[in-house]
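Anyone? Bumping this.
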Amino acid sequence: MLSLDPIYTILLIILLWFLLSAISAPFEALGWWAGWYGGEVEPTVDTPSAPVRRSPALNVSHYIVFLTGIAGAEQEVYLPREKEFLRRVADKVTGAVIVDDIFPYSVINRALTHQRFFAWFWRYTVRRKERGGWGGFLINFRNLFQVAVSADFRYGPMYNQGSTALILRSLKRYGYVVGSGIPVVLIGYSGGGQIALGSATYLKRQLKAPIYVIGLGGVMCSDVGLEHIEHLYYIRGRRDTVHLIGPIFFPGRWPMMSGSYWNQAKANGKITVIDMGQMRHNGPGGYLDDDSFTENGQSYLDTTVATIGGILGV
Amino acid sequence: MDVLAFPLSLWQPPEPVSLWEIVIAFFNSNVQAFTVALESPNRNLLVLQIVALAGFSEAIGQCVALFANRVSPLRFVMSLGVSVVFFILGYLVWVVSLWLVADWIFNRHVSLWLAGAAVGLSYIPLIFSFLALMPYFGYPVLRLLNVWAAVALVNILRFSFEFEVWQAVLCAAIGLGIIFALRLTIGKPVLWLMRRLRNAAAGKPLQLDLAKIFYSNEANDEE
C-alpha cells in the first residue's frame, strides 16, 4: 500500500510531474507537424521593447539570430542580462542585424504565458521566478525537455523544421533576402545551442548561405546539422556545469564514438572550443554578468561580446 | 445441513484480483503474480486486460509514426484502436507458438490457457511502453522494457511449464523463430492485409520509415 509519509508523497508527486512533463514534451511539435493546429503560429511582436537595432547601415554583414537559453518563457527576450548582451553585440558588430524575437522552445512560437491551457500556471511560475523563487527551475526543466525533443532522432526532424520555419520567418521580417548569400549567425545560449544546430540543416537548405553557430555555454548533441554549418564556435567557461549535459548525456559526444557527427566535425576542424576562464553558465559570474571581471579588468559580459566580435571579425 | 454449515463457513471463494494488485505482485515476483492470477476467478479477463493495456501503451509510445505521417486526430484514434487489436492478435499467435513448441519439442503438456496466462503476465512491463514518448531517453527505456518482459517470460515459463532456464530460453527462441518463418512464408498475405487495414484506419498509406518521410520533404516555410 502507498504510505502517506509526506516525504514519500512529495517524491512521488515530483516523479509523476517529471514523467508527465517528459512524455508530453513532444506533442506540441508533433501536433504542429501533423497540422493539428491548422498551421497556426504565433505572430512575433511588431515593436520589440528590447533596444536592439533592427535595421543597420546599408551593407549588412551578418544576420545574427539569438536563441535564448532554457530560462526563456516568451518570444521577446526579457531577461535583463540577455537584453544588455544583445545591445552590446549590436554596438560591437555594427553591420549586423540582430534577430531577437524567437522563442525557440515552441515550434509555434507560443510563449509559455500565452494562449496555452496551462498559461496561468506559467504566468504564476514566471512571477515566482522574478522573485527569485522556484519558478526558474520549472521553466528550465520544461525547456530542457524541448531541447531533448530537438535532439531525439524521432522527433528532432519535426521539431527542427518547426524551428527553421520560425527563424526563416523572423529573418524575412528583418529584411533578409533569401538567395542574397548574407551569412547567418545563430547564437544559441544554453539549450538554444541545440536548437541552432538542429535547425541548421533545414536553414541551409532554404537560405543557401553560410551558417555559423555560436554555442554560448551550449547544450548540444551530435547533430546532423554539424555537416551543414560552416563552423561551430563552442564558448564555455570552466565553472559552467550546464553545458556538460551535452558531453555527458549525448552518446554521440563521447570520444569513443569516433564516427559521430560531433567527432567527425571535430576531426575536420569544424568545431572551435573557446575557453572563457572561470565563467559560469548564468547569473553572477556568468557569461553575461557585467559585475564580474576578468584579471585584465574587463567585465564578463564585455569579454563575451568581444569574443563574439572576434569570431565575426570585428 | 447443520453438519455442513461449519465447514462451508470456512470455505471462502477466491476474490477477483484487480489489475493493480497483479502489477504489484509482478514487481514482487513474476512467479507470485502468476500464482495469484491462476487462483483468481477473473483470470481470463485479467490477462486480457494486461495484454490490451500493454497494446494500448505501446501504440501510444510508438505514435510518432502517425504524427510523422500527418494523420488527422480522428484517424489517429482509429489507428490506435487497430494497433491494439493487432497487438492482441500478435499475443495470441505468440501463445499458440510457445504452446506448440512446449508440447512437440519439450513434451510439456500444459493447457493453452496456462500458456496464455504465462505470456500475458510477461507483458506487464510493456504496460509502461508509453514511456517511449519521453524525448531522447524514451527509446532506450522501451528497449529495457522489452528485455524485462523477455526475462519475465523465461521466469514464468520455468515455473508454469516446469522448464530449466535453458529450456525456457530455447522454447521462447524456437517460438520466435517459427513466427519469423511464418512472416516470411504463409504469413505474408496476413501481413499484407494488416498493412491494408492499418492504412485504411490512417486514411493514407503509412510510411513507417521516418527517415524516408523527413529526408524527402523540404523544410516547411509557411510563407
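Late reply, but here is one note on the structure posted above: Chain B touches chain A at residues 63-64, 66-68, 70-73, 76, 130-131, 133-139, 210, 213-215, 217-223 (CB under 8 Å).
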